[in-house]
Each structure stands twice: as C-alpha cells, then as structure tokens.
Write a structure and sequence with these properties.
This protein has 280 residues and is an alpha/beta fold. 49% of the residues lie in helices and 10% in strands. It contains 13 helices and five strands. Residues 272-280 have low confidence and may be disordered.
Amino acid sequence: MSPGTPAAPALDALAGQLTALGLEHAASALPELLETAARERLDPSAFLGRVLTRQLERKDERRIATMLTLSGLPGGKTLEDFDWAFQPKADRRQLDALATCSFVREKQNVLFLGPPGVGKSHLACGLGVKAIKNGFSVMHVVLDDLLHALKADAAIPPARLKAKRYLNSALLVIDEVGFRPLDRIEANLFFRLVSARYERGSIIVTTNKHVRDWPEVFAGDEILTTAILDRLLHHVHIVHIDGRSYRLRELDQLLRTPTPAASDDPTPGGQPTSTKKRGA
C-alpha cells in the first residue's frame, strides 16, 4: 500500500458509502484509484474526476451490453470486423461518415443495395452497433419477422402502436428486403410502418433489388411502391456494393482444399480402407 492510502477498515467504509450512493463500479475500483492517486500525487479534484469517470465508463459499458441484447443485432458484425480488403468497392469514407451516426440524429435513412453475400447486412449491423454506442435505441429485424409482427398488430389503432419497438426505436434496421414478393396486405403494412417513421426515426434497409425493381416486391403495385420510396428516399444515404460474395468465397476455399486420398493400407482386419461407398 502506497503512503497516504487509507488503511483497510477506512477503505471498506469508503467503498460502502460509494455503494450506498449507487457508485458500485467506483467502489470496486477504489483501491486501484487510491494507489494511482498517491503515486501520481493527484489533487482532490483530479482524484474525484477519476472516480466519477470510472463509474461512468462502467455504467456505459453495461448500458451498451443491455442495448445490444435488446436490439436483436447479431453478434460479431461490427465495422471494425468488416473485411474491407476483400470488398474494395465498399466506400469506406462513406461508411466512416455514417458511423458518426449523424444520420440517426437527423432522422435520415440508409439504403444498402447489392447482390447477396457482399456484406450489406454486416455493414448495416455495424452501423446499428455504432448507433447504440452513441446512445441511440436500435432494433434489428429481418423483413419476414417484421411482417409477422405487423400482421399481429394490424388491428391496433396507430395511437396505441407508439410503444412498439419497431416504431419507437431511434434506428430500425430491416434486413433482406426483396428476397420474396409481398402480398398486398404485407405491402400495405410495410407502407404504414414507413409512413409512421417518416421524419420521426431512421431506417436502414438492406436489399438485393434495385429500387426500379421494387414494384415486383410490393405486390406489383407501382402507386404503393412510389409512396413507399417517396418517404424512404426523401432523406437517404445510398450505399451500393457490387462485389464478390463472402459466402461463395468460403465455398470456393472449401472446394480448393485437397481431400485426403483413400488409403490402401490394410486394416487390422486385413481389408484395405476406401472412401468409396459400396453400391455407389
């Protein structure tokens, strides 16, 4: 223990007082903080600043962990983990600008366009993680699951839907738009959602369909599709990725991996081994 550090009984009393005030993270770090204060000869205000900073850092870490769990975002999909070298056509400067989350503050939307497997979902989720770290509420959902929720709530008056997370989250990430055509009921429910969030909250959409092909996704209704796009694209950042598929890369690597040759060495039972199935 460094000179000037309180004895154990006094330290326990201080930690107990901090815990009673709800500063449990600062209480657990108190011995370390006092040792640092004595070693660096911190003045009282600097020491108090260290105590409060430690509490706020741990509190924010807990908030982020809780919000990530509630968001439904899949784990391991952050901007830091994205393979930019494999996907050089992804505009990193544009994504870095979006990562500031100014689009969420200004209630703007983001549309990721591109074929399957190029990393649209990964980048969308990465922006969702950034939004949570910046203090925003986020909900991630694939389109089919969203439509299931919208159908279940279809008869509820709009005024009572405000508590639904797909409406009150600062950022709604909708994945896999365009993988199948919607029927007229589903298309109308999607329009109702986009209208309700228009200029009230941000939406990120990932899709494998160019917007000119969206009428075939939304029940073949060009008027309804135009109304959806009018609201979705009014304040929008479009991220177009047209590169190789990550999943096909992994498949290609598997196909290129040499398989062990069949062994003709006799087994203990006297028969040669072979990978060929009988009767094949």
